[in-house]
């Protein structure tokens, strides 16, 4: 329950609606209970008037008594109707305030979680899968809303109604009051139990449904692989097994739900039988009137739903507390990468890696080991090395996706940690190894960093990334939708659109993480030539597997197993006749054979 205390700040925020909400609950209950004594009076009146009517048998006044009696009954009927209408009005206001507040809080909470997600670092996203992130913002928030809305509303409703009804009952007859509420705890307990069973089973079904949707989603994404390996039948069988399992559990839930209502009605009926039996004996003893029995039956019908709600609300609050606990876990996560009062300045592009080491926090893999190098402003640094040697890790550290675990990275002689994170990142253009484009138009993908779409700039960036002609050849040109909602670009085209996105930003520091791998050597040369112009006086870092890409760089680092094994320019490294030389010879041979 302590986890739900987090939500109290929202009750305070919406107190101006919440307090009237409580008053509406109280008012609706007063008008809900009042018809019972009215009906008792009417009921007793019927008995008395019938007796009187018989007494005047044969007299001409009998018709007058009949008329008065009829008008009285009509009046009582109208009174009960008026009370019910007023009650309905208050019920409407009750829902309009309390349920509406729950919707407002749901909105606020979703925004709060989503905004918090945005500030969390890469390591957080590595630790948690996307499904989990989505679930906490959707499923868990929905459960919490059930507590905030119906949970709170029915709890107040039950408490107010219970106090009022029990008071009214006790004033009529203590013995009958005790007997009629006897089955109530049993009813509440049973509903609580059945609800927990239903919730437990629903959760199991939800898990199966998630895994079924995950399975289907993956098979659609990987349909090319499935078809080329002729695994359609196997996939169909796996799907059938998963669906069968889902169906089996859904049937189990339907069985429990089918028993739920009949059981409830049985207990309610039992209460009525007790009232009529015990009430009947009290009438015979002369302690109460028959009207009181009718009054009690109305009280009972008033109590039935709140008592049912009690069981339901208890399990609902338990689930909400578990969900809020999960939400709080994320809300209390602090970003690992922070910049408090960071320095905001235009960077010149002088980079220093001073004995930098890095261990990935989640796996413990030591990706970099005492790396030291410097890059002058306006220079190009190239990094080459075997797969898994630590090249992308250098790019990640330069983008401050992670902080180094040893040594120091300095930008223009200022430690990177002292720079304002947003200001620094906004001056860098990063093209990651695994290209990611949004399901949007090509133009908007290229202009992703800009608030306003400036087409001449977008076109220039596309020309510099040597993708302009390809885009123009498409039917809708720059307005072509890509990704899931549109066409599929080739690997090389995607890489170039993503390069255009980085160039469009006019960065002071440009990082290419092996993003020319799917581009042919002639186009690659064109892009590199354009880069020379665009990045004049600015620093570029190019990670590649191909020597042809990097041979013009001022400094080339050869990385192996997280350490720099060779360092220099193309000529000096060739003269060394070490691993760079070997790689060059191998690639030359491959080109000649090709
Ligand atoms: N997010 C991560 N979490 C944990 N370990 C990682 C992560 N990314 C990379 N590694 C590990 O760090 C080491 C260096 O990886 P890195 O991606 O820097 O290599 P790379 O030289 O860029 O390789 P490639 O040329 O294949 O892209 C590898 O052993 C890799 O398994």
**pLDDT < 50 runs, ≥5 residues:** none
Q: How many domains?
A: 3
Give the distance, in angstroms, between the N- and C-terminal Cα atoms.
69 Å
**3D shape:** elongated
Structural class: alpha/beta
Number of helices: 22
CATH architecture classification of the largest domain:
Up-down Bundle
In the CATH scheme, the class of the largest domain would be Mainly Alpha
Strand order of the largest sheet: 6-7-8-3-9-10
CATH superfamily of the largest domain: ABC transporter type 1, transmembrane domain
Measured by DSSP, the beta-strand proportion falls in 5-15%
Q: Which distinct ligands sit in these coordinates?
A: adenosine-5'-triphosphate
* Cα-based radius of gyration, to the nearest Å: 38 Å
Mean pLDDT: 87
CATH fold annotation of the largest domain: ABC transporter transmembrane region fold
Could you give a short account of the major beta sheet? Answer: 6 strands, mixed
What's the β-strand tally?
A: 10
Helicity, in percent?
55-70%
Write the layout of secondary structure elements.
Layout: H1 8-13, H2 15-33, H3 35-55, H4 62-119, H5 122-127, H6 130-137, H7 139-172, H8 174-181, H9 183-221, H10 223-228, H11 232-285, H12 290-331, E1 351-359, E2 366-375, E3 380-385, H13 391-398, E4 406-411, E5 414-415, H14 421-425, E6 428-431, H15 442-446, H16 455-464, H17 468-473, H18 491-503, E7 509-513, H19 521-534, E8 539-543, H20 547-550, E9 555-560, E10 563-568, H21 570-576, H22 579-593
Parallel strand pairs: 3-8, 3-9, 6-7, 7-8
Antiparallel strand pairs: 1-2, 1-4, 4-5, 9-10
Helix pairs in contact: 2-4, 2-7, 3-4, 3-12, 4-7, 6-7, 7-8, 7-12, 8-11, 9-11, 9-12, 11-12, 16-18
The structure holds adenosine-5'-triphosphate.
Organism: Mucilaginibacter hurinus
Protein name: ABC transporter
GO molecular function, one term: ATP hydrolysis activity
């Amino acid at each position: 329950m302590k986890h739900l205390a987090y939500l109290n700040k929202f009750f305070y925020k919406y107190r101006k609606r919440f307090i009237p909400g409580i008053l509406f609950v109280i008012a609706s209950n007063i008008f809900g209970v009042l018809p019972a004594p009215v009906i008792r009076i009417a009921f007793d009146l019927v008995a008395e008037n019938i007796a009187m009517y018989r007494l005047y048998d044969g007299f001409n006044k009998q018709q007058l008594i009949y008329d008065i009696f009829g008008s009285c009954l009509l009046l009582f009927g109208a009174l009960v109707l008026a009370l019910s209408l007023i009650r309905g009005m208050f019920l409407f206001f009750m829902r309009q305030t309390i349920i509406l507040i729950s919707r407002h809080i749901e909105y606020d909470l979703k925004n709060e979680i989503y905004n918090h997600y945005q500030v969390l670092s890469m390591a957080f996203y590595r630790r948690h899968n996307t499904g989990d992130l989505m679930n906490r913002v959707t499923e868990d928030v929905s459960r919490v809303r059930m507590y905030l809305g119906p949970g709170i509303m029915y709890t107040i409703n039950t408490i107010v109604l219970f106090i009022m009804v029990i008071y009214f009952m006790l004033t009529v007859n203590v013995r009958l009051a005790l007997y009629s509420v006897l089955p109530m705890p049993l009813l509440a307990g049973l509903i609580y139990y059945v609800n927990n069973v239903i919730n437990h089973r629903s959760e199991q079904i939800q898990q199966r449904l998630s895994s079924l949707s995950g399975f289907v989603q993956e098979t659609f994404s990987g349909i090319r692989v499935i078809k080329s390996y002729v695994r359609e039948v196997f996939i169909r069988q796996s799907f059938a097994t998963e669906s069968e399992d889902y169906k089996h559990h859904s049937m189990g839930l339907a069985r429990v739900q089918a028993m739920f209502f009949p059981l409830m009605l049985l207990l309610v009926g039992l209460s009525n039988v007790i009232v009529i039996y015990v009430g009947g004996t009290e009438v015979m003893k002369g302690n109460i009137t028959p009207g009181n029995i009718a009054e009690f039956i109305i009280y009972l019908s008033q109590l039935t739903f709140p008592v049912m709600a009690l069981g339901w609300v208890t399990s609902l609050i338990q689930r909400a507390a578990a969900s809020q606990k999960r939400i709080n876990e994320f809300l209390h996560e602090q970003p690992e990468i922070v910049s408090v009062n960071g320095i905001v300045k235009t960077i010149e592009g002088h980079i220093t890696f001073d004995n930098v080491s890095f261990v990935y926090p989640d796996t413990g893999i030591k990706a970099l080991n005492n790396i030291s190098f410097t890059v002058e402003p306006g220079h190009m640094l190239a990094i080459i090395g075997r797969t898994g040697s630590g090249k992308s890790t250098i790019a990640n550290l330069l983008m401050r996706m992670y902080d180094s675990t040893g040594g120091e990275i300095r930008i223009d002689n200022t430690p990177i940690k002292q720079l304002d994170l947003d200001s620094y990142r906004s001056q860098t253009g990063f093209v990651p190894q695994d290209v990611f484009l949004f399901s949007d138009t090509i133009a908007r993908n290229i202009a992703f960093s800009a608030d306003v779409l400036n087409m001449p700039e977008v076109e220039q960036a596309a020309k510099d990334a040597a993708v302009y002609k390809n885009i123009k050849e498409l039917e809708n040109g720059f307005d072509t939708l890509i990704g899931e909602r549109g066409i599929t670009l080739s690997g090389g085209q995607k890489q170039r659109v993503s390069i255009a996105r980085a160039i469009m930003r006019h960065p002071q520091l440009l990082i290419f993480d092996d993003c020319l791998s799917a581009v042919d050597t002639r186009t690659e040369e064109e892009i590199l030539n354009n880069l020379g112009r665009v990045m004049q006086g600015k620093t570029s870092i190019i990670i590649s597997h191909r020597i042809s890409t990097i041979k013009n760089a001022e400094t080339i680092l050869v990385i192996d197993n997280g350490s720099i094994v060779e360092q220099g320019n193309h000529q000096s490294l060739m003269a060394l006749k070490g691993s760079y030389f070997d790689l060059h010879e191998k690639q030359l041979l491959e080109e000649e054979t090709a």
